[in-house]
Amino acid sequence: MNPSQQRLYFLDWIRIAAFFLLVLYHTGMYYVTWDWHVKSPHASDTIEALMMLSSPWRMSLLFLVSGVAAAFLLNKAGAGAFVRQRSFRLLVPLLFGMFVIVPPQPYFEVVEKVAYQGSYLDFMKLYVQAYHGFCRGTDCLDLPTWNHLWFLPYLWVYCLLLAALVAVLGRARWQQLGTVVANALSGWKLVLLPVAVLAIGRLALLTRYPHTHNLVVDWHNHATYVPIFLLGALVAFNAAFWQRVDDIRFAALGTALAGWAILVSYYAITDHMQPEQIGLWRDAQRVLYALVQWSAILAVCGFGHRHLQFDSAKRRYLTQAVFPVYILHQTLIVVFSQMLKPANHAPALEGFMLVVLTLSASFGIFEVVRRVGVLRPLFGLEYAKRLRATPVSAAAA
After folding, report:
1. Which first-to-last residue range defines the signal peptide (predicted)?
2. Is the pTM of this model over 0.90?
């Protein structure tokens, strides 16, 4: 295997960009009508169409890239070391995040939604006792919670699944399977076969299992993310696959944008319709959603492969920074939004301020964390500071 084929710098850049997109997306969630932890007094549907530009594919893209990273790590370390490393790097930040980073989010949520009058300390006493009495009707808040950190337990379980599959099949047969899959995804099959898998899962499971981020019952999300994660692991070392993705990048981008326009129109038309009035149009929309989802991933990877296959000091720095920023960002958005609310800024100005404050605070905290050995594992970093971060194979998430 050519070592140069293993250095997928473009996926590092894509992963960095995708995590930073979360900062913009979760800032946007404060201003749209969709349910979120806290809401701006100015919340409306104004930017919802723009939010839909990334909503169908951003998390799926992260699981694809994480599958590639997992394949590199597993190939380098072996199954046992891989499981130990993934468990430590994912579960330690998850537990720390659930009990230190995340709690301000549900605190401000219950203050806003159920007019909770207690102090933060009073709330934390209830939080660690798994109190389930914060309810609006039948909608009750489960505590403790992982909120935006749901990605970590899902990724951990998928890594265990990958390790088990490789252990059962053997490394040689797993690599052969990867070659077969990569070779099969050529021509029209590169687009339509993954779309078919995503569409079948959406048609069969979404109504019965809406997205809850409850790991044990979130079957539609698993039907989406497990195949994409495993696909990333299977094609990780196949240079021909990534070149085929590169070759169709413009067609994929056009398909994704056209599908987005139709999706936005569908939601606008059906927003006030009864389910029985929508009928089979919902099934057609779900197939289209899968097409947009996969086409956008192909476009991002294709353009990334063409233009971002290079290393730099910035990549090495941001590769380290992105995981701590991910852990911190949503709590910072929620806290800063409540601090700025009394000023009653215009939404555009306030949103810009939220992004600036969140990124500034995230990187400021990262600069402290990366210099303090005991803090590093709590934010997904290795104990020992390395001079050079390994490309995508060393991605923390």
Report:
1. none
2. yes
